[in-house]
Specification:
alpha+beta, four-stranded mixed beta sheet, 13% strand, flat
């Protein structure tokens, strides 16, 4: 059937060389529906389009897929538990020429799907690409509850270590953030390193000119310099150069240790726990409100320590002590809670939002006074695998065999006050800690 069209007074007019008698025109949709022979069993729809000179845009709706639409559809599917289909949408989004934000979202959510399925290596690769090429913030990975199962895997530890060290494969954004915190905590390290380099360079240049004089002095002769003075100068220059280089390397080592500790502290601040009111919070939200005491070890040891703490309950509460028991191996027995981006509204309200400023996250859920009233004597560690991994990393850094019974007492500002092997002496802690209303507690915040 031949079809021709031409423009007349801003309208498109369709003319057919032959229109079957049983065809009909539907005004509502402005379409001709032409019934083809029964053998074909098909319908041909032709749109009747009206154009206006005052409105250059077409009224046709585009049904083509975009990276943004695929990401949004993938999120919707993930929230319904249809993870395989969501993964397909995120993969499709990456093939549709996405911009930086769309590619970052597709890779990040793809990583969440892999984490849900227990595919740690695939999740790490997606996050590594997003960190390197699309400026994903590592704090987002630390904060997202959908990646809780991934953070308990060895692949996360490898990824975090790569991000701390920085490099072309992972990017430098996380390391820059850590170095900024390090400079605040050790403001004169950069100045010391500068002088070490400057003086080492001066000693090296001096040595460069002193060595030939020392050779001439050893050979002797009428014009040879004094051997003792020349050897003394060479020894001072060489010794100074070696000492200054050693000091510079020592500063670098201390800086790396500090960056590793800051990274562990950042991970610690994001660990979730459940209060006695069944509300889930992160440790950072308890700053200025409680002094958590982490009890990690075998079930028998932790249970005994908890029973002993009951004898000092009143005094410990006056000092803001909050007990957080962590049983070795409990994460293996605990069922993995798999949830999507469309988790329950209750979960959404108790956890900080992704990408918020650090201090805003600490204040974002409710007023601090309400949080204070919810804090009781004991809290439950949520995602015990994350807690166990962090504690064992801390044990390695302190030279303690991973898996031993340990306790960790935190300050009101969230930093570690002290730690030790075995379980704590509660009488000693009561004697050591000031009451919450005391001036020393106010200075600790």
């Amino acid at each position: 059937m031949a079809l021709t069209s031409f423009a007349y007074q801003h309208q498109i007019v369709f003319s057919f060389s032959k229109i079957p008698k049983d065809s009909t025109f539907t005004p509502a949709t402005k379409t001709w529906v032409v019934q083809l022979p029964s053998a074909a069993k098909k319908k041909l729809q032709l749109s009747y389009i009206t154009c206006s000179s005052s409105s250059p845009s077409s009224s046709q709706e585009t049904t083509s897929e975009t990276a943004e639409s695929c990401v949004n559809l993938g999120l919707s599917l993930f929230s319904k538990g249809r993870v395989r289909e969501a993964l397909e949408q995120f993969n499709l989004a990456l093939t549709l020429n996405p911009n930086v934000m769309e590619a970052q979202a597709a890779l990040y959510n793809k990583a969440c799907c892999h984490a849900y399925r227990g595919e740690g290596k695939q999740a790490a690769e997606c996050l590594r690409t997003a960190l390197k090429e699309y400026d994903l913030k590592f704090g987002t990975i630390l904060n997202d509850p959908d990646l809780a199962s991934f953070r308990a895997l060895p692949e996360f530890k490898e990824l975090q270590e790569e991000a701390r060290l920085g490099g072309e494969d992972i990017g430098y954004s996380f390391r820059r953030d850590l170095k900024l915190i390090s400079e605040v905590q050790a403001p004169f390290r950069g100045v010391r390193k500068f002088f070490y380099v400057a003086f080492a360079a001066a000693a090296g240049i001096s040595t460069f000119f002193t060595i030939p004089r020392l050779v001439v002095a050893i050979q002797g002769g009428d014009n040879a310099p004094d051997l003792l003075n020349t050897a003394t100068n060479a020894g001072i220059n060489i010794g100074g150069f070696v000492v200054l280089v050693a000091l510079f390397l020592w500063e670098n080592k201390k800086e790396e240790e500090q960056l590793a500790q800051i990274s562990r502290n950042e991970t610690l601040s994001r660990l979730p726990l459940r209060l006695s009111t069944n509300r889930v919070v992160e440790l950072v939200q308890l700053r200025d409100t409680a002094r958590p005491v982490i009890l990690a070890g075998r079930k028998e040891s932790v249970s005994l320590a908890m029973r002993k703490a009951e004898k000092f309950r009143t005094e410990l509460l006056r000092r803001g002590v909050l007990l957080v028991p962590v049983i070795w191996g409990e994460s293996k027995a605990a069922p993995v809670l798999k949830k999507g981006f469309g988790g329950s509204e209750k979960t959404a309200t108790v956890l900080p939002s992704i990408g918020d400023e650090f201090e805003k996250r600490a204040q974002s859920v409710t007023a601090k006074s309400k949080l204070q009233s919810e804090v009781r004597f004991k809290a439950e560690a949520v995602s015990p695998g994350e807690w166990e991994r962090w504690i064992k990393d801390q044990q390695k850094s302190e030279g303690v065999t991973p898996g031993e019974d340990v306790y960790i007492l935190l300050r009101l500002d969230g930093r570690i006050r002290r730690s030790g092997k075995g379980m704590p002496d509660w009488q000693q802690i009561v004697s050591e800690l000031p009451a919450m209303e005391d001036l020393l507690s106010q200075l600790e915040k």
